[in-house]
Amino acid sequence: MKNRIIAAAGALGVAGSIMLAGAPAASASVEAPPCSWGNGHFWCYNRPNIPVEWAGKVVGYLYGEYNWFSCRYEGDPNGGGAPHPNRWDFTTADNGARGFVRDQYIYDETNVLPPC
Predict the structure, then answer these.
(1) Which residues have C-beta within 8 Å of that of residue 108, sequence separation ≥ 6?
(2) Please, are residues 49 and 69 in contact by the beta-carbon 8 Å criterion?
(3) 87-92 and 71-74 strand pairing
(4) Percent of the chain scored above 70 by pLDDT?
(5) Is residue 19 left, alpha or beta, with left meaning phi > 0 and alpha meaning psi from -120 to 50?
(6) Where are the beta strands (DSSP E) in 1-116?
(7) Which of 27, 28, 56, 66 registers the highest number of CB atoms within 10 A of its CB?
(8) In degrees rounded to 5, what are phi and psi of residue 89?
(9) What is the pLDDT of residues 33-66, one digit of tens each?
(10) Count of Cβ atoms closer than 10 Å to residue 79 Cβ
């Protein structure tokens, strides 16, 4: 019995190596799906508990993982990381305060948002 298990594991290892060797490499840059339009806003998946800022101050938070955004602002060097390091996206925080979220916190592609 022990020999059968070892033989089966060895066969799987060889087959797995062959399959991996023949498989094309995955692309390093997989584009995120775009935010979707609904009820007058663009809805995007985002990191939970993200700060909403106005004039350099945190005015509220988005606690959920799916929120709406109305437009994007380009040009602020503190917008976050790739793929849009200078982009901020306008929304309303869960407490009702309006402001911008760093684009780096949004998982979906935000190119579909119109400029503010």
Answers:
(1) 32, 33, 34, 35, 36, 44, 45, 46
(2) no
(3) antiparallel
(4) 72
(5) alpha
(6) 36-38, 41-45, 50-54, 57-62, 66-69, 71-74, 87-92, 98-102
(7) 66
(8) -120, 130
(9) 899 999 999 999 999 999 999 999 999 999 999 9
(10) 20
